[in-house]
Amino acid sequence: MDHSDAYEPGPLEGKWLKVWEKEKIYSLKSSQKNTKYYMLEMFPYPSGEPHMGHARNYTIGDVIARVIARKGYNVLHPIGFDAFGLPAENAAIKSGIHPYESTMANIGKMKKALKRMAMTYDFEDEEITCNPDYYKWTQWLFLLLYKMGLAEKKEAGVNWCDSCQTVLANEQVVDGKCERCDSAVRRRVLSQWFFKITDYAQRLLDDMELIKDGWPERVLTIQQNWIGRSEGARVDFKLVDDNEEVIIPVFTTRPDTLFGVTFFILASEHPMVGKIVTEEGFKKEVEKIRAVIAKQTDIERGSAEIEKIGCFTGRYVINPLSGEKVPVWIANYVLAEYGTGAIMAVPAHDSRDFDFAKKYGIPIRQVISPDGSSGPDLTEAFTEEGIMINSGEFSGLASVKGKKDITAYLEEKKIGKSDINYKLKDWLISRQRYWGAPIPIVYCEKCGMLPVAESDLPVLLPYDVDFKPTGLSPLAYSEEFVNTKCPKCSGPAKRETDTMDTFVCSSWYFLRYCSPHLETGAFDRELVKYWMPVDQYIGGIEHATMHLIYSRFFIKALYDAGLIDFKEPFTKYYPHGVVTLGGQKMSKSKGNIVSPSEVYNRYGADTLRLYILFVGPADSPIDWNDSGVDGSSRFLKRFWRLVLDNLKFINASGFKNPAGSKNAAGSENSLISQFNSGALSSFEKELYRKLHQTIKKVSSDILQRFNFNTAISSIMELVNLMHKYNEENSKGARNPLLVFETTKKLLMLLSPIAPFITEELWNRMGNTGSIHRSTWPDYDVAIAAEEVVTVIFQVNGKLRDKAELAKGMETGKLEGLALSSDKIQKFIDGRVILKKIVVPDKLVNIVIKE
Ligand SMILES: [Zn+2]
Ligand SMILES: [Zn+2]
To answer: How far is the CA of 444 from the centre of ligand 2 (A)?
Structure first.
């Protein structure tokens, strides 16, 4: 043997990387028309070297993709880069390096690392969203939505980050702070582009039925809460006004509390406030309070803790049910964007209204009570269901019934109707930043706002732009970019200077992967029909509300446009857990990072992959642990020695590897017949049974349960048993065929997890071709089954019952089973048990006093 017997992962892995690159081992596409499988991990934002979370995400996806492909599927396993976005631009402002240059450099680093970790991607099909051949189609999709009436420009209160100098989607504001830079977010009213995702709110809920078997329930719950459907009623309140009829509608989930309305609130920014506050005395106070509220963010205003402030406007509305005159206030805790921007306040039955009423001395009138009696004054809002009181003809009704009856009454009198409200807001997609896809819209003085002609796409993002954040879109300063011709009248026109949110780019990239080089369209409809939907999607649960909702929305819109024939993009979604260090999320700013390269440079990529999968369940957080990495490395060394020792024995025994010969399947069959004919010793039978059980367990753990850690444990158990077999038979004869088969299958089972070491040993074994092209091993159901024995149950030595049980059951369990048998109990019948005799796998004898 001219090989080194020492396990040196560095050179070994380097050698196979070259071979695999040459033999295109990374693409899992099959030339045969086999069943398709679209395996996808969320594509990375190229921030430089991948971090450990990336390594975890991609290793999980890689192992599944490899096993699926070896089970005969045609596997699409693409990679790309979500390359636009704020971080590159913010970094560029500090460093002076153009975002395009830094992004491309980062992509280079990331790809190098992904290849080094042996990720099976179709790198030739990669998509980079900041390249014009990609964003051309992002712009095309914008135009499609525009034509469908799903993209619109409107004035809206938006979340504004002063530090990033841009608007943020609601989903990008975390605890009132900018998700990107942690600065406080404030509210501004701006003209912005929105996608009307709210048109799809109900379908986003209803279609969860189509994916509920493949998505974790907790993710669907997060989406449900985000969409926030509530059923209730719209109720029309009429403004007390001598001159004209002004109706102010409200949405309420509790129409049963209408008799408890003691005041009415308009959001302070509600357009009606300016009109209805007419008396000078009130104007001043209202303006003062409005100015204070304007400084508060929507998130602050929506939180339960904020101090409630407001003032009376001097005006009244009429409660349509009771006919009462109700004072109109403005208050900070009512938002213009929620519902109608106005509420009926019922302090007795709403906690926030209760706090407000207490503070300002507004009456509190109880109209629901637990038992129908009116008790003492409330010390807090009673928000449960109960019996209606003080509610005119509706008094005495259960509140649940009251909701229906009152709603019916409102409808009959045409002063309201049953209604549904959603918390989901339209998706704000325009950004006043440079590093994004330009929005393909032009403004002509004569013709107004017009979409760019499809034939003029892409609207190229100019390279030379001063992209320092000023609050205005950087593109607005580029004369060359801004000035264009009107697509209709050819007169002078100006381009839209906002760019699109990067989440637009990532809402459809999985379609582009199906035909990545197509020049005539965003995607090839036939190929999309073949590959989509994605069979398995993997990525962090932090994307539950943004990316995963936006992508679902895009697919529904494309379905409505008649371009695709499926309604959901991801049949199954699996959120992997995060990687922490010392309990803290790894992050550059905290300086607590272990990079994948540190690990693979020192131990090899096999150790990194093995550790990441072995350290814990794939959907749980894992805390990085250096000694765990050492442990994984030690296992591989032990594995290496075991296999080399086996190979030495096999060679010495004169046994020939039947690989490639006609006899290839013969060795397996003759081993099965040895097993069945009793030609194997009992230890050999155990080892062979364990092998089949391990194949069964590893296959189902990986493919059905994503339990990589238990799959690896069972491989380790098999390795241990093999060691024991070798030790116990070191002098005597080992069965070369059994050693050969077990070694071969062990390599196959470990190969998707540790691709390098297994390829090397596979090669040394004399097998032809790559182990990664070999068919995934099957197991024999009968051999993998636990061995069953018949155990007889006696009372005083007489056979009374028997049972078919798994071999090797322990004494205590056998006793318990015997005693719980009805037939045995009949003979014991309360008499004293003198002793219990157990012969494992054979009998239990209960000795009683006669
Ligand atoms: Zn920011
Ligand atoms: Zn024009």
So the answer is: 5
Mean pLDDT in residue range 693-721: 95
Q: How many angstroms does the Cα of residue 183 sit away from the middle of ligand 1? A: 6
Question: One-letter amino acid identity for 452?
Answer: V
CA dist 29 and 489 (Å) reads: 49
Interaxial angle between packed helices 52-70 and 596-603, expressed in degrees from 0 to 180 and rounded to the nearest 10: 60
> What was the pLDDT predicted at 107?
96
Nearest listed ligand to the Cα of residue 180: 1
Q: Determine the distance separating the centroid of ligand 2 and the alpha carbon of 144, expressed in angstroms.
A: 21
Q: What does DSSP assign to residue 323?
A: -
3-state secondary structure at position 668: helix
- Tell me the pLDDT tens digit for each residue of 798-844: 999 998 888 878 888 899 999 988 899 999 888 889 999 999 889 99
Of 464, 456, 454, 400, give the one whose Cα is nearest residue 434: 464
Q: How far is the CA of 89 from the centre of ligand 1 (A)?
A: 12
> What token pair was written down for 310?
């407001």
Q: How does DSSP classify residue 702?
A: I
Q: Which ligand sits closest to the CA of 486?
A: 2
DSSP run (H or E) holding 229: strand 229-239
pLDDT of 655 over the 90 cut:
no
Dist CA 501 CA 433 (whole Å): 9
Q: Which ligand is nearest to the CA of 490?
A: 2
- Strand ranges in 16-96 using DSSP code E only, listed in sequence order: 36-41, 74-76, 80-81
CA of 476 relative to ligand 2 center, distance in Å: 20
**Averaged pLDDT, 6-34:** 90
Both tokens assigned to 549:
């909702």
pTM comes to: 0.86
Question: How confident is the model at residue 2, as a pLDDT?
Answer: 47
Ligand 1 mean position to 171 CA, how many Å?
13
Tokens 């009926």 belong to which residue?
344
| Parallel/antiparallel/unpaired status of strands 430-431 and 427-428 | unpaired
| Segment 510-563, tens digit of pLDDT | 999 999 999 999 999 999 999 999 999 999 998 999 999 999 999 999 999 999
H or E, element range at 409: helix 399-412
Task: Give residue 65 CA to ligand 2 midpoint distance, Å.
Answer: 52
